[in-house]
Amino acid sequence: MTFALEVDGVDKSFGGATILRGVAFAVEPGSTTAIVGPSGCGKTTLLRLIAGFEKPDAGTIALAGRVVAGGGWAPAHRRSVGYVAQDGALFPHTTVGANVGFGLPRRARTPARIAELLEMVSLDPSYAARRPDQLSGGQQQRVALARALAREPELMLLDEPFSALDAGLRANTRRIVADVLAKAAITTILVTHDQPEALSFADRVAVMSAGRLAQIGTPREIYSTPVDVPTAEFIGDAVVLSAHVDGDRARCTLGDVAVAANGVHGNARVMVRPEQIEVTTDGAGVSGTVVDVEYLGSEMLLGIRLDTGYGEVPERVTVRRFGATALTPGDRVGIRVLGKAVAYDL
Ligand code: ATP
Which distant-in-sequence residues (6+ apart) come within 8 Å of 307 by Cβ? Predict the structure, then answer.
């Protein structure tokens, strides 16, 4: 199979500061990949290299089997790539229609084609006559997407396109955009700060850390078997405990727990997700006392102090419970781990 995108051994520095180091991954045609990572880790730089706005110092980038950077060079306008920036970056002094038309070859720049593109992103064609500042933030983002779609790119790069939108609009805009891209079978790469967005939007999630690709995998792989503790903590809530691992079992504050066998042995750390921790009121499991209850609407967070510890004792754990609970501070409970923990070397 020819990959839609292959990034291999890409390095990039600016003014002596290394921004990307040995970044390598491949993307299947028609798939959606979310790139996540802390601020400044190089996500936007990577997208700009793929788009052709910057050149890598080392390594290669190939689009649909054609090398476009490193051992060959195709500038941005010679790549079949759409790019939507965080703020949409519409041309402010012209109409929505002209903005969308900018993405079209001159002979295809017709009102009918512009209307069709606006409809694709669920905007009424009458918006073509408006100026960008007469649209809401979510509508502007959709115009930016329509402009990028006009070029009929094989690859769409979205750089935090929803981050300026409030929660409701964000979910709605995201759904519309995901739908449009899926229907057109356009390979998509999305940079986002929002972990739930990455997990729900993408087929694969790439986690970056300080210019390197820490892990790439399906949302389930990334969430359930993160490669290291920083990745585990970046992609969701994580309970990390000192432990002693022997084969597929570990002893830790939460008792004797099952671990996914990954070669880690002896003194180590284990990670479980809060929803893997079950609270019992029949005495089963490791005993402890509820110390606080945080109500979050659809779920509750229970802080539990354990009676005994293990190693450097994180004696308090936070447990997630869906729905209501009658538990209150001072109640005695048992806790136990469901499923498997993940072990890491110290
Ligand atoms: P954020 O999530 O905050 O957008 P990011 O992961 O997208 O961050 P980048 O925008 O890729 O990170 O920036 C990574 C680093 O590269 C930053 O320290 C930034 O200042 C630096 N950088 C990016 N572009 C340039 C440039 N053209 N010249 C010099 N430094 C740059």
Answer: 286, 287, 288, 289
Å from CA of 191 to ligand 1 middle: 13
* Each residue's pLDDT tens digit, 147-199: 988 888 999 999 988 777 777 777 887 888 888 888 889 999 999 888 888 88
Question: Per the structure block, which two tokens stand in for 261?
Answer: 């066998």
Number of neighbours of residue 323 by Cβ within 10 angstroms: 7
Of 10, 12, 43, 207, the residue with max ligand 1 atoms within 8 A of its CB, to mutate for a pocket test, comes to 43
Burial of 169 (0-12, 13-18, 19+ CB in 10 A): middle
pLDDT at residue 145 greater than cutoff 90: no
Show the beta-strand stretches assigned E in 86-163.
155-159
pLDDT of residue 313: 52
AA letter at 117? L
Task: Name the architecture of domain 5-224.
Answer: 3-Layer(aba) Sandwich (3.40)
- The matching CATH number, chosen from 2.30.42.10, 1.10.1670.10, 3.40.50.1400, 2.40.50.140, for 237-345 is 2.40.50.140
Query: Domain extents for the chain?
Result: 5-224, 237-345
Question: Residues near ligand 1 with C-beta < 6 Å?
Answer: 14-15, 19, 37, 39-45
Q: Which atom of ligand 1 is nearest to the CA of 160?
A: 4
CA distance 119 to 2: 32
pLDDT in tens, 242-288: 899 999 999 988 889 999 988 999 999 999 998 899 998 887 888 99
Query: Which one of 11, 19, 212 would you pick to mutate in the ligand 1 pocket, going by the greatest count of ligand atoms within 8 A of its CB?
Result: 19
In whole angstroms, what is the distance from residue 51 CA to residue 85 CA? 12
Q: Give the pLDDT mean for 21-45.
A: 95
CB atoms within 10 A of CB 118: 22
